[in-house]
Amino acid sequence: MASVILGILLVLAPLPLSTEAQTRSNLTLGSSLTANDRNSSWLSPLGEFAFGFRRMGRGAHLLAIWFEKIEDKTIVWSANGDNLAPEGSKVQLTANGGLVLTDPRERELWSSGLNGTGLAYAAMLDTGNFILVSASHVKLWDSFSRPTDTILPTQRLDLGTKVNARYSKMNYSTGRFHFMLGDDGNLVFYATPDPYDASDTYWRCNTLGRVFQLIFNQSGQVYLTTRNGTVLKLLTSSTVPTNGFYQRAILEYDGVFVQYIHPKMANSSSGWPMGWSTVSTPVPPNICTSITQEIGSGACGFNSYYTLGDDRRPRCQCPPGYTPLDSTNEMNGCIQDFVPQSCNGSRPETDQFVLREMLETTWDRSDYEHSTAQTEDWCREACLADCFCAAAIFSNGFCWKKKNPLSNGKMGPWVDGKALIKVRIHDTTSKCTKNDQKKNKNTTMMIIGSVLLSCSAFVNLLLLLITYLIYRSFRSRDSKLSRQVQINQVIGMRTFTYQELHEATYGFKEKLGRGSFGTVYKGALGFEDPDFVVVKVLATRTGESEKEFEREVSAIGQTNHKNLVQLLGFCNEGQHRLLVYEFMSNGTLADFLFCASRPSWYRRIEIVCDVARGLSYLHEDCSRHIIHCDIKPQNILLDGSLTAKISDLGLAKLLMANQTRTTTGVRGTRGYLAPEWFRNMPVSSKVDVYSFGILLVELICCRKNYEPKAEIEAQIVMADWVYDCYHNGSVLQLVESDEEASRDIKRVKRFVMTALWCIQEDPALRPTMKKITQMLEGAVEVPVPPVPSSFMSSI
I need a labelling partner for 777 at 20 to 30 A (CA). Which of 243, 487, 668, 770 fits? Predict the structure, then answer.
């Protein structure tokens, strides 16, 4: 009886007037919008929602509906996430097809699919619903009936309706997670687009044959009802504020169903606080442990593992020796960044691998052999000796051998035991194997020499003479050519002619910036679906610029990491020296961080961790260690998904694997320079650690480190003020105007302590970037930092 009464109360919650009654903003047949820089749109009567084009990077547009009156214009529905529209595309209201999206060549990209139905007009409503209506005011089509990843108050989902998560945070194409209100009357969440068996289901409401609708009412409640309106199940844990707030519920890209609220204030920067989510209610309480697929990767992609963040959302990470498969989507899995162990019986390579330990970690379902009553040492030796073994799990005397790809990875206190990950001792990718190539070349020469020695003296002398003449011939020809051939042999990347790059940049027309060694232009490769690139034209061939060219090609050509800007190719033709990089659509971190609107705290967290991982890779994970020497916001670029990537390795100082320090002239930018630069001291990778510490301070406070116009004198040098606040126990002052950061004060304090370790005057006191990354991620405790000595008097 109580459930019936509750159902009546919920159904009687205030719903909007008939949508057909809202005609003040009706759109007539022939109305159209064009995808361009102005991002034109159709507004709802009160301007609450907009329908139109949203720019997704350079030259790509999404036809969408979004909240118009809040700062980030949050998207709630999209039409063409799997097929973005190029610049100049048009959406038009037509009598034959309804709403039709076409590209500049008038090829159809998407359509509402109405044919000969008597369409009269369309309207964008203040509920967030876009409708197509006939002359007799019959609703023919609406966006509420065809949701993407979001539902809104007053929206009702009927049987057979599916809600799909998007691919990643900034990619609105269809992702792997979805939930469906099935025709059998059951609400089920799936971990794959095409469910295969029961293990692909990670939550179900167990209302088989009883559910009729899922309703999101204006009181902020989401619930399931029967056909007569009886409430079967409340999906919300409580009501949320409604007056003066916007609401939305979304199936996030990581599979978590979350409801958010936002104050109804234009240009509010307070973000979307979480109202409730499936991670705080039994839907499910721990999504990670709820997904264990018999066939599939689990909550994260193959060869990765998940942990639960502070917000109880899954975080996917790669184990040692693995890197992300897709830098734009952490849930897409990882790949080995070293050559796997050979199964050649004559060359088992057991001495070339070690096992990296990961506590409270396991990978389910990918084992092919297990043993009982064994020791951990036995388990280690068994995996090292087995070329098929990619990892071993040891727990309470049990040893499980795992093979690639690893699936259903998880780390957390609910996991008993440890994982032992097999990695090559000298981690090298195909781009960092020059030493191996050199060894193979030397081996070949030794074989040739042995053959010569086995022949007669006359034949040997004759062959030596011929070899010498051939050598002189090639030496003479090489002296007439540029160094292009030499670089081609060393670096495995694309070479361009000067004419190709001249055409790609339309005659070097669009200048993006200028540095000390040349000018940067925007270009495009290809015609049908052009890939945008950045072309750096070095000023001259002689002097320092040529060294710069060789240094960048040599250094960047060997790197392969998601947090480094990728060098795609180069031109080394005559007097022309050009470098071709991937295009980073969101510009520099300096522009992003110091602009009028402050980036969210959680976005800044992701950026600082991205930079830390990139530097850790440069310092430790490539066979030739690289010191960047000029870490600053201007040299950190952001791609379309706001992933941070380190750029401009032109000032890098390369170190061999057995070299840790070098002496060189002052490089970099004042304000970010470590004190040893000015003391004629040998420098090491710790100069990058110091610069990173200053960058971390700027990211915490969203302000430049040196601000001479600061109203309070103590705040002119941000690093000094940060230490004063930490020493006085008033870290909250650093972020008091940042609501998100203020609510996350434990992490803020951890970041501040990490920054203070980074800017120690003594390089020996500064941690490595690998340790700093662990500090930032909370994997290790951050000890109390010592007082940083002032070195400004010596500069």
Answer: 668
Domain with 678 in it: 593-794
Q: What is the torsion angle, in degrees rounded to the nearest 10, for the CA atoms of residue 52, residue 39, residue 525 and residue 547?
A: -140
Residue among 118, 146, 115 at smallest CA distance from 130: 146
| β-pair partners for 274 | 260
Provide the edge-to-edge strand list for the sheet that holds 201-204: 161-166, 174-181, 187-190, 201-204
Do residues 307 and 544 touch, judged by C-beta distance below 8 A? no
Does 787 reside within a domain?
yes
In a domain, 629, yes or no: yes
Mean pLDDT of 120-125: 94
Pairing of strands 85-86, 201-204: unpaired
Tokens of 389: 């073994």
Measured CA to CA, the distance from residue 311 to residue 328 in angstroms comes to 21
Residue 580's alpha-carbon distances to 453, 493, 565, 634, in angstroms, are 47, 10, 11, 19
Q: Is residue 115 part of a domain?
A: no
List 630, 639, 738, 744, catalytic entry: 630
CA dist 107 and 113 (Å) reads 15
Q: How far apart are CA 719 and CA 705, in angstroms?
A: 6
C-alpha span between 196 and 175 (Å, rounded): 16
* C-beta atoms surrounding 775 within 10 Å: 22
Q: How far is CA 194 from CA 149, 179, 190, 318, in A?
A: 17, 11, 8, 25
Q: Indicate whether 408 belongs to any domain.
A: yes
Q: Do residue 600 and residue 577 come from a single domain?
A: no
Q: Is the pLDDT of residue 13 over 80?
A: no
Note whether 359 and 454 are same-domain residues. no
CATH number of the CATH domain containing 565: 3.30.200.20
Is pLDDT above 60 for 668?
Answer: no
- Total structural domains within the chain: 4
Residues 759 and 634 in one domain: yes
Contact 196, 358 (CB under 8 A): no
409-411 vs 361-363, strand pairing mode: antiparallel
Indicate whether 605 and 569 sit together in one domain. Answer: no
**How far is residue 11 from each of residues 223, 233, 332, 661, 737, measured CA to CA in Å?**
10, 13, 41, 72, 41
Quick one: 460 and 334 in the same domain? no
Residues belonging to the binding site for ATP are 536
Q: What is the value of pTM for the model shown?
A: 0.53
Please list the alpha-helical segments (H only) found in 512-665: 544-557, 589-593, 601-620
| pLDDT of 430 strictly over 80 | no
Which of the pair, 531 or 639, is modelled with greater confidence?
A: 639
Binding residues: 536
Q: Are residue 733 and residue 664 in the same domain, yes or no?
A: yes
Q: Are 80 and 171 in contact (CB under 8 A)?
A: no
653 and 616 housed in the same domain: yes
Catalytic (active site) residue 630: yes
**Can you read off the two tokens belonging to residue 422?**
């097999």
| Residues 506 and 603 placed together within one structural domain of the fold | no
**What is the predicted pLDDT for the residue at 44?**
94
